[in-house]
Write a structure and sequence with these properties.
The complex is a heterodimer of chains A (909) and B (148).
Chain A: H1 2-11, H2 13-77, H3 83-93, H4 95-98, E1 105-109, E2 111-112, H5 113-125, E3 141-142, E4 147-149, H6 167-179, E5 183-184, E6 201-209, H7 218-224, E7 225-234, H8 235-243, E8 250-256, E9 265-268, E10 284-291, E11 294-302, H9 304-310, H10 314-367, E12 371-376, E13 381-384, H11 386-392, H12 396-399, H13 404-407, H14 410-426, E14 430-437, E15 442-453, E16 459-468, H15 470-498, H16 502-517, E17 521-527, E18 534-541, H17 563-570, E19 574-576, H18 589-594, E20 599-606, E21 612-620, H19 628-714, H20 721-752, E22 758-761, H21 762-776, E23 782-786, E24 791-794, H22 796-813, E25 820-829, E26 832-839, H23 871-881, E27 886-890, E28 896-900
Parallel strand pairs in A: 23-25
Antiparallel strand pairs in A: 1-4, 1-7, 2-3, 5-6, 6-7, 8-9, 8-11, 10-11, 12-13, 12-16, 14-15, 15-16, 17-18, 17-21, 19-20, 20-21, 22-24, 25-26, 26-28, 27-28
Helix pairs in contact in A: 2-10, 15-16, 15-19, 19-20, 20-23, 21-22, 22-23
Chain B: E1 5-9, H1 13-25, E2 31-35, H2 38-46, E3 62-65, H3 74-83, E4 92-96, H4 101-109, E5 114-117, H5 122-139
Parallel strand pairs in B: 1-2, 1-3, 3-4, 4-5
Helix pairs in contact in B: 1-5, 2-3
């Protein structure tokens, strides 16, 4: 690059710099012209501004002149002007409001020394007793101020001042008198001035001549002068009224007289704060002006702000723009120079390095892993790399200038040329993966073809790169196969979960395996019960009757030693890579080959205990089809199938067991129904029985009892003691039988009637029962204790029967006690509430407790205690029908305790 | 008051006899007409069959009706009595050996005036008849609607 830099810096320098110099000169000239023009404009502007100040002063002074002339005219028009008239006149002018700078308008009469006394006396008489003329002293003539309006403030100091006594004022007065015109005094300090801010001042006079007297020449004027109308002015105030507080951009001075004499300076417009005074102002001017016969010199100098304003932007813009354009031009020229230099240098280098680059390109192409070539638009080879030469097996010289048709079989060459044409027409690259031949073998090639454009944008050639991807393709195929295997496995598992029927499952598995792996055939066979034959149960694929011809007998020497036989015996997969040549396939070879099965694999299916119960067989149309990973995954699948099979069989067994249970239940149900029917029949019979008992058995008893009584009565006299006793026995027997019948009927009724449970107060029932029992023998003394508020959920009628019996028994068995005591209450037994009836009666021997609740069982003789022996049986039945328990505790001679429980809120059956 | 007939519907001659004796013992002077089955009872009451010549208006003061009867049973007899305009206000006392609950319910729902179970004990039986007679034949006022 150093060379580039030097050529950029030196060899092409002059032209660029010339351009720069030229354009800068033009810029400078342009700038100068514009600047001069600008200056002229500024000067004119400045002069105009100065003149404007002068004009304004003159205009304003003119106005004041008219005021004074007006005052004088007042004197001319009237014989005399008194103080009030003067006041009215001046007030009407409203000078303070409209005329800034004028201090007032006054009148001073011209008097001689002789007139002085009378004037003073007159003024004093007007109400000013202290009036005097100042300065004091005797003079020839006086011009004292007698009127000054507004008559207040500083103006009061002028009252009585003899203006004629002061030189500058007298000079102006005389000039006014002689010329009959307005006259301005020189620079004075007004008598009104006091304080600190003293300003320059001046006075303006206008003569007033005595009425009716001639004053057309100087002599007549001097003789007829009566006085002067005058105005005092403060210079700064005046100028403020005219031009404002200060004059922007300008420094204006006003001098009294015609010279720039510092002592005569009356006004300086500069105010410190507003701007900076220019030591060397760019613009200055001075103007003389004549006012009231008096000269003023007005000077002006520019202030920096004016100069800034005057200095227009245009010269600067012109300068900047010019400079920018110059530089731009400079760089454009420089860049062109650089480019040209570079192009020249490159051409130079290319010339030198063409062979070098050719060598490099060849190295790159030859070392590329790609087969590379370049063809012209007609498909003629322009160039090929080393790999192409190797791949084609021809020399490069034999290839260049030829087309694909000359090199490759027509089918392939046509395809290549078609791709080339597509690249040329579409003007876009093309990528293909294709199977091609190098003349001997088939290869998978990946080819990139791309158009090469000429300068006119047309496709002039095609470049191609190709790579042998056979290995990659193999890998991809293997991955595809494994993917398919996993797909198979997952679909098989899905089927296992979904399909609940064994045969359906096998069909699904066969179909899925055939589908996923593109097997020719898949079939599943199961061993028969004797484990002698393998029976095909499902298949998928090109079966064409193959499984029916298998005829595998495990005990047969021929068909029992094939792959399936081996599998059943070893429990391991059996692979047959080449059916054509594998001896174990001998019995089935012809049929297999006929159907295009060239290799096979078989996988055992096991039961829960690991015994082989079936086989899964697959056949492929290629030799050596089954790779190890395939075998592994297929084995996994057959395990899954085994597992599913077991699950199905377990489920089937369970279903069978369930079905048996259901059958048993149905039988039971039927039996129950039959029993129920029988029971109902028995119940009906019992009903009929009890009906006839209640009606038919009673009638004979009544006859026996009735007629024996009647007989006894009739034979009263004939019967002896024994006879009467017999009659009595007949009677007792019949009554007892009547009692038995009643009790039996009650027991039967308890068994039959429907229980209707409700919440009942057992304590209340017990009280009721006891009251009734007591009435049977009011003479007996029995103490009865009832625990209050014992509730239970039971049938009220039946519970009444229970308490009737238990309390009745207690009453009966305490019959021989003098201090009989019966209790009804509740206690807790085995976590349950138990009700009890307790007495202190005869009690019983616990050895016979078992017999207590049997019908017709009695533990006491009838002669001892009456009773049928049915009561407790009835009580037990009632308690049992309430799902309760009943038991008794007793000791002979020590009383008895009867307990019963009534479970609460048993679900209604 | 001279002809207060009591109709006893009773198939058992023993009971008939005992009832008669009980009536005697209780000094009940009323005529006791006994019929042996339900059909006979109906014939008597509605003046049909062998009682066709009877005066219809001679209704008994009270009917003592057994339930278990040959031919037409007591409940049917009761129902016929109650469904006929002429007899529906006739006092009918069920006098039976049955203590069957259903019989009680059926009897009363068919309009029995009273239900008395014949006690097995003769003395009690006599007492029952005595009270029955006293009530139905002496104390009870029959409906004026009954024509006799």
């Amino acid at each position: 690059m150093s060379k580039v830099t030097s050529s950029f810096g030196m060899s092409r320098l002059p032209s660029a710099w010339l351009v720069l110099a030229g354009s800068l000169l033009l810029t400078a000239i342009g700038w100068k012209v514009v600047q001069d023009k600008e200056r002229e404009t500024a000067e004119a502007q400045f002069a105009a501004r100065t003149n404007d100040v002068k004009e304004r002063i003159q205009q304003r002074m003119q106005s004041y002149e008219y005021l004074l002339r007006g005052g004088a005219a007042l004197y001319s028009a009237s014989k005399s002007v008194d103080r009030n008239a003067w006041h009215d006149y001046v007030s009407s002018l409203r000078i303070d409001q409209y005329m800034g700078g004028i201090q007032g308008i006054g009148y001073a009469p011209m008097i001689s020394d002789s007139e002085k006394k009378s004037l003073i006396a007159q003024i004093r008489s007007e109400g000013f007793p202290d009036f005097a003329i100042s300065p004091p002293g005797q003079r020839n003539a006086y011009a004292p101020v007698i009127y000054i309006e507004p008559f207040r403030g500083a103006n009061l100091r002028a009252f009585g001042f003899d203006m004629y006594s002061e030189t500058l004022r007298r000079e102006a007065m005389e000039r006014a008198r002689d010329a009959d015109d307005i006259a301005l005094s020189g620079k004075v300090t007004l008598v009104q001035e006091s304080g600190e801010k003293k300003q320059a001042g001046f006075l303006m006079y206008f003569p007033v001549y005595r009425n009716g007297m001639r004053h057309d020449d100087m002599a007549s004027r001097r003789s007829s002068i009566q006085g002067f109308v005058y105005s005092p002015f403060r210079m700064d105030d005046l100028m403020e009224g005219i031009v404002g507080r200060s004059i922007p951009d300008l420094d204006v001075h006003i001098y009294d007289g015609e010279e720039k004499n510092p002592s005569a300076l009356m006004f300086d417009s500069f105010i410190e704060d507003s701007d900076k005074r220019n030591d060397d102002p760019e613009f200055t001017s001075s103007v003389r002006m004549l006012i009231g016969g008096h000269h003023w010199l007005v000077t002006a100098s520019s202030l920096p702000s004016f100069e800034r304003e005057a200095r227009s932007k245009s010269p600067a813009i012109i300068f900047d723009l010019g400079l920018f354009i110059s530089l731009l031009l400079f760089f454009i020229v420089r860049f062109q120079e650089y480019m040209r230099a570079r192009a020249e240098r490159l051409a130079e280098q290319m010339t030198f390095s063409f062979q070098e680059s050719e060598r490099q390109l060849k190295a790159i192409l030859d070392n590329s892993p790609y087969i590379a070539w370049l063809k012209d638009a007609h498909g003629r080879f322009l160039r090929v790399n080393k790999r192409y030469v190797e791949y084609s097996g021809r020399k490069a010289e034999d290839i260049i200038g030829k087309t694909d048709l000359d090199l490759w079989p027509k089918a392939y060459a046509d395809k290549y040329r078609l791709d080339d044409a597509e690249v040329i027409n579409s003007r876009r690259p093309k990528h293909v993966e294709e199977q091609t031949t190098d003349g001997d073998e088939l290869h998978w090639m990946e080819t990139f073809k791309t158009p090469v454009f000429g300068e006119d944008g047309k496709v002039v050639a095609t470049a191609g790169f190709a790579q042998d991807i056979s290995e990659r393709k193999l890998r991809e195929e293997r991955i595809t196969r494994i993917t398919r295997l996993y797909e198979l496995l997952s679909r098989a598992n899905e089927a296992i979960v979904r399909v609940k029927d064994r045969d359906e499952l096998f069909k699904s598995i066969c179909k899925i395996a055939e589908d996923s792996m593109l097997f020719r055939l898949v079939w599943i066979g199961m061993l028969d019960e004797k484990r002698e034959a393998v029976i095909p149960v499902a298949y998928a694929g090109a079966e064409e009757g193959y499984t029916k011809r298998l005829n595998i007998r495990l005990n047969d020497e021929r068909t029992g030693n094939g792959p399936i036989g081996i599998m059943v015996r070893t429990g391991a997969p059996v692979i047959c890579d080449d059916i054509e040549n594998d001896p174990i396939m001998e019995p089935w070879r012809d049929e297999a080959l006929k159907r295009g099965y060239l290799s096979s694999s078989g996988f055992p299916i096991n039961d829960g205990e690991g015994n082989v119960v079936g086989v899964l067989n697959t056949y492929a149309e290629h030799k050596h089809f089954f790779t190890p990973e395939m075998v592994q995954l297929m084995t996994d699948m057959s395990h899954d199938v085994s597992f599913a099979l077991n699950a199905i069989e377990n489920r089937d067994q369970r279903q069978k067991a369930e079905e048996e249970i259901r059958q048993l239940n149905r039988d039971l149900e039927r039996k129950v129904q039959e029993r129920t029917r029988q029971l109902e029949e028995v119940n009906r019979e019992l009903e009929a029985f009890s009906y006839s008992v209640s009606h038919d058995l009673r009638a004979p008893l009544r006859s026996i009892d009735g007629f024996s009584q009647i007989l006894a009565k009739k034979l009263q006299d004939q019967l002896d003691e024994t006879g009467r006793d017999y009659m009595e026995r007949v009677r007792r027997a019949s009554q007892r039988m009547g009692q038995l019948i009643d009790d039996l009927l009650r027991l039967a009724r308890v068994t039959r009637t429907q229980i209707k449970r409700e919440q009942i107060d057992l304590s209340a029932i017990a009280m009721l029962v006891m009251d009734e029992i007591r009435k049977t023998d009011p003479s007996r003394q029995v103490s009865f204790v009832v625990q209050p508020d014992l509730f239970c959920y039971a049938d009220p009628g039946l519970m009444r029967v229970v308490l009737d019996n238990l309390l009745g028994n207690a009453y009966k068995f305490t019959g021989k006690k003098s201090d009989a005591r019966i209790e009804f209450g509740s206690c807790e037994r085995e976590g349950e509430q138990a009700f009890f009836v307790r007495d202190n009666g005869a009690g019983f021997n616990m050895d016979y407790a078992q017999k207590l609740f049997g019908a017709f069982q009695r533990l006491h003789g009838t002669d001892e205690f009456s009773g049928t022996g049915i009561g407790l049986a009835t009580v037990q039945r009632i308690v049992h029908r309430h799902q309760g328990k009943i038991w008794a505790e007793a000791k002979e001679g020590m009383g008895a305790n009867f307990y019963f429980t009534i479970p609460q809120r048993i679900a209604e059956r | 008051m001279d002809k207060k007939i009591v109709l006893l519907v009773e198939d058992n001659p023993d009971d008939e006899e005992l009832t008669r004796i009980a009536f005697e013992e209780c000094h009940l002077a009323n005529e006791l007409v006994v019929v042996r089955d339900g059909q006979e009872a109906l014939d008597y009451l509605f003046v049909t069959g062998k009682y066709a010549d009877r005066e219809m208006n001679d209704l008994p003061q009270v009917v003592l009706l057994d339930l278990k009867l040959p031919k037409v049973d007591g409940l049917e007899v009761l129902q016929r009595i109650r469904s006929d305009e002429r007899t529906k206000q006739l006092p009918v006392v069920i006098l039976t050996s049955s203590r069957h609950e259903q019989d009680l319910i059926d009897s009363y729902s068919l309009g029995a005036s009273s239900y008395i179970q014949k006690p097995v004990d003769y003395l009690q039986f006599v007492e029952a008849v005595r009270q029955l007679g006293l009530y139905w034949l002496v104390l009870n006022q029959t409906s004026p609607a009954l024509k006799r």
